[in-house]
Amino acid sequence: MSRTPDARARDTQTKQIQENITNVEKHFGDLCQLFAAYVRKTARLRDKADLLVKEVGLYADTETPNLKLGLKNFADHLAEIQDYRQAEVERMEVKVIEPLKAYGNIVKTKREDLKQTQMARNREAKQMQQLERMRQKNPSDRQIIAESELQRATMDATRTTRQLEETIDDFEKQKIRDIKKILGEFVTVEMAFHAKALEIYTTAYQHIQNVDEEGDVEVFRNSLHPPDYQSRLEIVRANSKLSLNRTGTSMSKSGTMQSRTSSRQRKKDDEEDEDEEEDEDDLEEVTDDEH
Questions:
Q1: By CB count within 10 A, which of 37, 64, 111, 169 is most buried?
Q2: How far apart are CA 63 and CA 78, in angstroms?
Q3: CA 209 to CA 203: how far, in whole Å?
Q4: What b/e sequence results for 120-152 when a residue is b if at least 16 CB atoms lie within 10 Å of its CB, and e otherwise?
């Protein structure tokens, strides 16, 4: 049976609308899944960064003062970035994933509208078939009834088609607005996070670069010689110096005593020589007297 030109035009229109709905259903569903995977990856990155923050903090506790302070500040800023990353994840879920997920119900509603239109067109086609059969049999009264039923079916099909056109027109407008908003929100959330992250990363970089290397190297060198070792070393040095001083003093005194002893010995020898000379003189005097 041949369809009327209007019926064939409506069939073509319905097919195009169905393809459009199927296209949106497929691609919005794929986008939803991929954005959800993107957010899960971001959340896992946040978790790994939290472990990194913890490890940097543990390492900082083992280091010299300046490096320890630099590492602690670095870890604090890295942790702050993860707070913003968490906010990024939450905003993505609300502003991107949920609106895309909502299109599951939206598409389902449009399919129901399409189904109602298709049912009306099927009724119209059925009535047309009945009218054709009656015309072949030529019963006038039944033909009039069939024509009346066909007219009502055609009017119903026309009405539902018009409604479908209106609702699918609204659907098309909403789809364009929504995808623009969803992708715009995605970019806005990402830019907000990366702008803040860049600011904090810059500060973290400055903290780690400002670590006083020479100061920490000096602290390390001093750690190789503890304070008690330095004290003992100073005592040893002081004792050594004192011993040297005492030795010098003793040698000086010994020289003086030897000098004094030599003087006394020379004086004694001189006195003995004088006594011997006196004894010789006395002996000579006695000898002279005897003669």
A1: 64
A2: 19
A3: 10
A4: bbebbbebbebbeebeeeeeeeebeebeebbee
Please tell me the predicted confidence (pLDDT) of residue 283: 43
Helix (H, G, I), strand (E, B), or coil: what is residue 278?
A: helix
If 0-12 CB within 10 Å is exposed, 13-18 middle and 19+ buried, where does residue 63 land? middle
CA trace torsion 51, 55, 56, 61 (10° rounding): 140
DSSP SS3 for 138? coil
The residue to which tokens 């929504």 are assigned: 178
Contacts of 6 (CB under 8 A, 6+ apart): 158
**143-197 pLDDT, tens digit each:** 555 556 666 666 666 677 777 777 788 889 999 999 999 999 999 999 999 999 9
One-letter identity of residue 184: G
158-to-95, 140, 151, 154, 167 alpha-carbon distances in Å = 39, 27, 10, 6, 14
Helix ranges restricted to H, the chain = 5-60, 65-92, 98-137, 140-209, 213-223, 227-290
272: Cα within 13 Å, side-chain hemisphere: 6
Length of the chain: 291
Q: For residues 124 and 157, is the Cβ–Cβ distance under 8 A?
A: yes
pTM: 0.66
Cα-based torsion angle of the residue sequence 34, 36, 38, 40 in order, rounded to the nearest 10 degrees: -140
Residue 27 to residue 82: CA distance in whole angstroms = 31
What is the residue whose two structure tokens read 């083992």? 62
| Cα-based torsion angle of the residue sequence 154, 159, 160, 161 in order, rounded to the nearest 10 degrees | 80
Structural tokens at position 288: 């002279």
